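Quick one: structure for this chain?
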Amino acid sequence: MIIKNLGTVCKIAAIFFAVLVAVACKKTGTAPQLTLSNITDTIPASGGTVPLTFTSNAAWTVDTAGFGWLRLNQVSGNSGAATIQLTATGNSLGTRRSVLLVLNSNNGQSRRITVLQDANIFPSYNTSPVAPDATGMSSTATQLASNITMGYNIYNTMEAPGSETGWGNPAITQSLMDLISKSGMNAVRIPIQYDESHIINRATAQIDPAWLARVKQVVQYCFNDKMYVMVNIHWDGGWLDCTATGAKQDTINARQKAYWEQIATALRDFDEHLMFASANEPNASDVPTTNTLMRYHQTFINAVRSTGGKNSYRTLIIQAPSTSIDLANQYLKPGNIYKVVTALTDKQPNKMIIEFHYYTPPNFCILNADASWGKEAYFWGANFHTTNPLFLDRNSTFNEEHYVDSIFKTAKENFISKGIPMIMGEYGTSYHADKLTGYPADSLLSVNSQMHFYSYVTKQAKANGVLPFLWAGDAFNRQNNTVGNQRTLDSLKKGAGL
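Got it. Here's what it folds into:
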């Protein structure tokens, strides 16, 4: 018989081979085995060697086509446990490069391994790594989270352009931390920018040492009051762009590595009361941009861990896509059905927290004037709607108590109950009563609804294990470090159970 179709020939050959394998396995009583430690390997941008470990119960070979920049110390072997050393020199091409390896076993099994190497764009700032130091770092992320009562953002200060006082707030002092601590809150979030105002050499991505020293001083203020503190890289003009591709994405990723090597080294000696947060509100909203965000987060994790010391065990905070609880539920929950390819790995188990922000509904929480996409809402909560015909269209009509209950329930079910703590890194409302001058009853109702929001959202967060960190508000007077609005503070403390 003459077979003219080459594809048919290949199919017949494959079937014949599979039959032979099956017969062989039946005779030996063993199933074909080819088990890999991982299907992705990453070689440092500056060059180096990483092991690829696997086990096969038959002889094996590696497809050697197109290795190019990657060197392997062996490409074939016999059955049993095996380790191939993958080696590359530094990547000076300006873009990430990759090689696909195909590992074939004579038992019919085959595996594909992607080997990646980021671009070596900026110099390494991990110039003095130290041995891991577990002193004062024994808590898991869940244990650490259980110790936090409530948090407060030192907003519009260290993330301001130019200087700490660039947006009119005073410089952070020990007195401010003392005030927050005395209120019953025992944690602060410090948004910090670097890229806009504190880089002294853009060609090398070097952060001003004086700025790093100031960050360290502020962290020490928190430690003096035995507070938990998280520092992040805040918005910074949006340089951490999740929509970037190609060489632009590679440069962003290299900048993330350079910045976090410097920050982590400067703050390495603080114990577990200090947490690092990768970003702020990354612009990821779908599978491709979420994959890019995961790449940036993985670089953050690797950079921090590489510096050693207490950073080897520090709790790290990663942001959900767009810092959205809805997108966290969609893309990040364990066993999600969406194909987010890039999964995060960490040398230290149980040391990660996921962050989301909560400004829902935005008409009530964010707007202080009507916008093209919606009207400002003055009233929130089922029992806090006005009946004044003049302002009926200012009642919130969605995302009130029932939504709060349901969304925080998903946080508990999808993450917290599975050992993944969640932090609500920002939440708050706008003040609307000033729009109701001349209507004292409605003005008071608006204030009451704002207090209800503070109390209710805080309470539901805490009830479901989410850590609430207030953004802005008038609870504290930053100008003189006193309580600003006692009622606001009382509403927050009531919700937090303080």
